[in-house]
Amino acid sequence: xxxxxxEVKGETNENVQKESEIQIDKDYMRxxxxxxxxxxxxxxxxxxxxxxxxxxxxFNKIGYDNIEYQKFEYNDEKNxxxxxxxxxxxxxxxxxxxxxxxxxxxxNVIIKKDSNQNTQKKLIISAHYDSSPxxxxxxxxxxxxxxxLEIAQILKNIDMPYNIEFIMFSGEEKYMLGSRxxxxxxxxxxxxxxxxxxxxxxxxxxxxxxxWIMVNGDKRNSDIDYESDDAMQxxxxxxxxxxxxxFQVNDRFSVVMAMNSDHxxxxxxxxxxxxxxxxxxxELLV
Length: 286
Hints:
The chain has 286 residues and is of the alpha/beta class. The chain has one domain: Zn peptidases (Aminopeptidase, 3-Layer(aba) Sandwich), CATH 3.40.630.10. The chain contains 10 helices and 8 strands. Strand 3 (122-128), helix 6 (138-155) and strand 4 form a beta-alpha-beta unit. Helix 2 crosses helix 6 and helix 3 runs parallel beside helix 6 (138-155). It is globular and about 50 Å long.
């Protein structure tokens, strides 16, 4: 089980090398972070609506106009119950109560880049755009939003062998509400057509400790014949090594088993999924 981030085609090796040289616009990413961190912007706040408008405006400037909005409501009591039963898929992926009593609402933003090839397969590249109630959210997760926007800019004119969805999730700070809702709405065909999820979360801290590739941290996969926690960790190691080459860094991405980011709901559905996150606590590496 494996997937590639993107494929560059050319008539000669020289063309391939030339086309694969990518310039990263650090100034643009800094500008994005500064633009969306004017105030704390937790889910269900006026401020998060302003952040959402800023993000959509940036995608529009790049040239993306196929944008969908996925609204959802949540119930705090139901959410707390779901957290206690995080390995029970039906409970965990349903953040609203049975009587639809709502304590708040969020909205995922889905930006679509369709392949010129006739395919239903898609890769999801995501970040959450909400902050905690007491943080401006520059690192967590303005940095992830900025990187996804930069990736969208780089890939804009590259034809891919599959579709791409750039997803800005809301409510990650309330235990991944947005990604849980998105994953819970997927049909069986839609699940089968997702080749993988690459999530970016908290990557702008000044640190010499490197980066993690975060994968599913529970033992549920050990009961599945074709997949195990060991296999998921091996997948993360392979992708981490590939990312090291992509970003031209000497240190390999380390692997940590954890459930606390937006890759986790997809992992519960057996969809290959990883989070790229900064290593701030070296002793937690596995």
